[in-house]
Amino acid sequence: ITVPTNTSVAFAVGTQVGVVRAGTGEVGVTGDVGVTVNSVLDQRNLAYQNSAASLLKTDTDEWYLIGQLKA
Predict the structure, then answer these.
(1) Average pLDDT along the chain
(2) Which residues pair with 57 in a beta bridge?
(3) Neighbour tally for 11: CB within 10 Å
(4) pLDDT in tens, 42-69
(5) What is the model's pLDDT at position 4?
(6) Three-state SS for 34?
(7) Are 26 and 71 in contact (CB under 8 A)?
């Protein structure tokens, strides 16, 4: 999943977007060029099937990824 720039999609600061890994395939989150995605230990992949995470927009092109993650 690629988080778009604010110029592409102007989500309001404070927006939350849920992400679920429903199947067995890997699900990773990355920012488009110029977008920062912060997470614990820079982990950006959902850990297991049926795990979930949330993206929280904190600034124009800055997001936090919080949830069941792995490297």
Answers:
(1) 97
(2) 63
(3) 16
(4) 999 999 999 999 999 999 999 999 999 9
(5) 98
(6) coil
(7) no
Indicate yes or no: pTM above 0.90: yes
Q: Are 40 and 4 in contact (CB under 8 A)?
A: no
Taken in order 6, 10, 15, 20, the sign of the CA dihedral is negative
- Coil, strand or helix at 41: helix
Strand partners, 59: 62
- What are residue 41's phi and psi, to 5 degrees? 55, 25
- Tell me 63's DSSP state: E
- The SS3 assignment for 42 reads helix
- pLDDT tens digits, 12-45: 999 999 999 999 999 999 999 999 999 999 999 9
- Residues 67 and 38 sit within 8 Å (Cβ to Cβ): no
What is the rounded distance in angstroms from the CA atom of residue 21 to the CA atom of residue 47? 8
